[in-house]
Design brief:
55% helix; alpha+beta
Length: 91
């Protein structure tokens, strides 16, 4: 797997995706312990996971459009939260 720097985002943009990233991870952890027995909580969790996933993907789509990052077949981007650097990860 190779990682190649392809761009940079602003600290504000970084904070936006970092918040979504942390929320998505928290929801995924919660999903491991919430059962469908608790219908109300389960439905809220599923809805929240869907909305957070959509916002997460929308951020990447918006930034890729704005900055025109290089892409590769089978590759994906990741962000270094410390430096705001965007890396292209290719298997």
């Amino acid at each position: 797997m190779t990682k190649k720097p392809v761009g940079q985002v602003t600290p504000e943009e970084r904070t936006e995706i970092q918040t979504l990233f942390e929320r998505r991870n928290g929801l995924n952890e919660l999903a491991k312990i919430v059962t469908a027995d608790n219908t109300e909580l389960y439905e809220k969790l599923v809805k929240d996971m869907g909305e957070t996933g959509t916002k997460f993907q929308a951020w990447w789509d918006r930034m890729a459009q704005k900055y025109q990052w290089e892409s590769a077949e089978g590759g994906n981007w990741e962000i270094n939260f410390d430096t705001c650097e965007i890396l292209l990860v290719v298997p």
